[in-house]
């Protein structure tokens, strides 16, 4: 085992690092603060990302509100979440309502990037007259929910981005 003060010669064969962490071992970072080395020039605007447009999020939010959200009875355009396909992350619903009882279920009157499979009617119980149809992502064909006979979408196999 090499002395800690010796300079590493770059030979990978003498690596003695053991990544096992046992109870009682506390891992701490080696560097807790970055300091500019003396003699180097100071770099300004480290927080500025040349590829980030700080106004883009606001513009995107305005576009979604104008183009995709329908006003409610009080003329308010809102949603409980934006829903995405769990298979490919394609947006499937921009305006929905959270179910009152079931925390991971959503209702919507409109979906995007989805197709309804009306070839087979589904029911919740054997004698239940209510029929449902599978709702699938157009991009990857993943099941994301159901459509009932009244045309309401029930989405429950989705990834939500809470609004």
Q: Gist?
A:
This protein is mostly beta strands. The protein has one helix at residues 56-67, and strands spanning 81-84, 91-93, 97-98, 106-108, 114-122, 132-137, 143-148, 153-155, 159-162. It contains 1 helix and 9 strands, in the order H-E-E-E-E-E-E-E-E-E.
Helix share of residues?
A: under 10%
Low-pLDDT sequence parts: none
CATH level 3 topology of the domain at 78-162? Metal Binding Protein, Guanine Nucleotide Exchange Factor, Chain A
Q: Which class do the helix and strand fractions yield?
A: mainly beta
Strand residue percentage? 15-25%
- Characterize the overall form: extended
Number of helices: 1
| Distance, first to last CA | 55 Å
The H-level CATH homologous superfamily of the domain at 78-162, spelled out, is Peptide methionine sulfoxide reductase
The strand line-up of the biggest sheet is 3-4-8-7-6-5
Query: Helix and strand succession?
Result: HEEEEEEEEE
Using only C-alpha atoms, the radius of gyration works out to: 27 Å
Average predicted local confidence, pLDDT: 78
* CATH class group of the domain at 78-162: Mainly Beta
List how many beta strands DSSP finds: 9
Largest β sheet strand count, sense and barrel closure: 6 strands, antiparallel
Shape-level CATH architecture of the domain at 78-162:
Beta Complex
GO cellular component, one term: nucleus
Region (Disordered): 1-21
Pfam families: Eapp_C (PF10238)
InterPro entries: E2F-assoc_phosphoprotein
């Amino acid at each position: 085992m090499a002395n800690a003060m010796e300079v590493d010669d770059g030979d990978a064969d003498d690596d003695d690092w053991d990544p096992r962490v046992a109870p009682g071992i506390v891992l701490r970072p080696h560097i807790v603060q970055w300091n500019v080395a003396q003699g180097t020039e100071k770099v300004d605007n480290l927080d500025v990302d040349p590829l980030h447009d700080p106004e883009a999020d606001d513009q995107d939010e305005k576009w979604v509100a104008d183009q995709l959200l329908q006003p409610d009875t009080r003329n308010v355009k809102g949603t409980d979440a934006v829903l995405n396909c769990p298979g490919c992350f394609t947006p499937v619903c921009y305006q929905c309502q959270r179910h009152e009882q079931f925390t991971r279920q959503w209702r919507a009157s409109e979906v995007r990037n989805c197709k309804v499979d009306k070839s087979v009617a589904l029911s919740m119980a054997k004698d239940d007259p209510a029929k449902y149809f599978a709702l699938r992502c157009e991009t990857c064909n993943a099941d994301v929910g159901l459509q009932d006979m009244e045309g309401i979408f029930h989405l429950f196999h989705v990834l939500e981005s809470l609004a």
